[in-house]
Request: fold
Amino acid sequence: MTIKVMPKEVIERIAAGEVVQRPASVIKELVENSIDAGATRIDITFTDGGINYMEVSDNGSGIPKGEIPVALKRHATSKITSADDLNKIRTMGFRGEALPSVAAVSRLTVITSPQNGDGAGDAYRYTVKGGTSGDIEPAARGEGTTVKVEELFFNVPARKKFLKTVNTEKRHIIKTVKSLALSRTDIAFSLNEERNNIFKYTASNLKERFVAINGKKLWDKLIKVDFENPFLKVSGYMTKPELFYSNKNKINFMVNDRPVYSPLIFHALMQGYRSYIPPNKYPSSVLNLEIKPAAVDVNVHPAKKEVRFVNQQGIHKIISTVMKNILQNTSAVLEIEVPEKNTNFNLKSSKARRGFFKGRKGRPAELTSFRNIDPVEATKFTISSFDEGSSKSRRIGEAARPAGRIIPRFQLLKKYIVGEDLNGLLLIDQHTAWERINFEKLQKQYSDDTINSQRDMFPEVMELEPGETELLKENTGLLKRFGIEIENFGPGTFKIVATPVIAGRDKGGKETIGMIEEIIDLLDKSSVVPDSRDLSDKIIETIACRKSIKAGDSMDEKEINNMIKQLMRCRIPHRCPHGRPVIVRISEDELDKRFDRK
Ligand SMILES: Nc1ncnc2c1ncn2[C@@H]1O[C@H](COP(=O)(O)OP(=O)(O)OP(=O)(O)O)[C@@H](O)[C@H]1O
Ligand SMILES: [Mg+2]
Reply:
């Protein structure tokens, strides 16, 4: 075959395939153009999942008459003029590709009335079908631009076949517009399917819009995020750990006001939440990262959905640290909320909780600010939620404060400890409580490098697969820091010669072998995503869990008192390292109501 340069239409259609994958990608590009045009309101209408008709109308700057055909040419943009500008992109668009790409695979009509320049005050219409343009004609509309896109993929049957059902495409459109609406809360948005309004957002602030998009029940469950250092600013909202979801749909990120999909930010966020919410559950959040445009590359994805940071690791570290600090500061004993006829109760209880969300220095968590904290310093920033002595008040209005001291009473069902504090009845899960205690003890010993190990007279022997053998050999030094010593005994066989004292003596050997197997699994996974802090925490979790008193173990008074004493000293006493609750409280207020005393 001879090599030939492709005809223009083929080149355009191939390029269009990258930018325009489905109706939602067209809407994304058009709305982004309206944002760049300085619009303060954007109205979007579609029919049939956008496949036959989409329209985006704005009150932005409009396009000067003479520039309308240029706007539809490939590589024509008003947003950058030199390669240098690529390092300081502040606009959503910069490639001059969106309109020609859409026009190459649809019938696209622009109706625009420019505020300034050629033809200012008048309106014009211009249509392009499959890349072939018509004439500029007079039209009628107020200042701004409307772009209509009809018959998407009429000339690319293969792509059209790949589209999903009308409902799926509709869901994609809704999701896309919602994430754009979150990124610019100063703009009013409406989304309509034919004549039916799907949603309408007036210009407002981030908290109001976030709640309008993700549900009213979020309103008093949000923590404000406001962190800034010379390198990065992180702002937005995240949910308190008491509220979590089974999917990731309510997690939103923006980088310099551009909605992005970012596995990196997601991982950092989840790392922060890891000890607070159960596995496979997700928070809701909207976080905007502001960073110097030169420190982030927005040109790495054909639809500009992803970005790459120059310092990926630094960003990860800062975000996970900020999240951890905020959550630590917000930590509270879980309260049981029983459905009540008196709705005032819930209001009261959330107010009460807010009273508790104060750090040692009375810093309200809702306003948690880590301004100018160095990311490394930030890791050292801790506020104890069980600050004895600081809570003298007994008023019910401040009931959620863990009122000084937990007084244990008795063991229930060989699983729970029943106790009380000044605010009511407490139920403590003995297993998760010990997990938390051991976890924090080990964490401290690990960072001080003082984990004590004990030697076994008759060491357990375990057999391993070849890959696992290598992994253990490579990590002998690391394991030693955790008090675990393993010696090669024969081909594929190892002796566990020492284990951490905290893990206790294990007569059958089963628990110890299980613990080593779990650690091997962690090491295996971490070789794909190396993250030493995360890895060490997980190893500590595993050791802490092995040793912990299980459900079904009896505990006498002395043991109970000892456990409670140690639990009270923990930084995060109310959740185990895996995120399960340790303490549940039924407040005095609530008990009184249950017994009709109020
Ligand atoms: N709604 C609008 N209002 C005003 N001008 C617009 C509008 N839509 C497009 N334009 C003009 O048309 C030009 C081309 O738009 P297009 O979306 O193709 O490219 P871009 O936004 O510059 O870059 P990108 O391909 O990254 O989106 C823009 O640079 C802008 O000047
Ligand atoms: Mg654009």
Q: What stands out?
A: Residues 312-330 form the longest helix (19 residues). The radius of gyration is 30 Å.
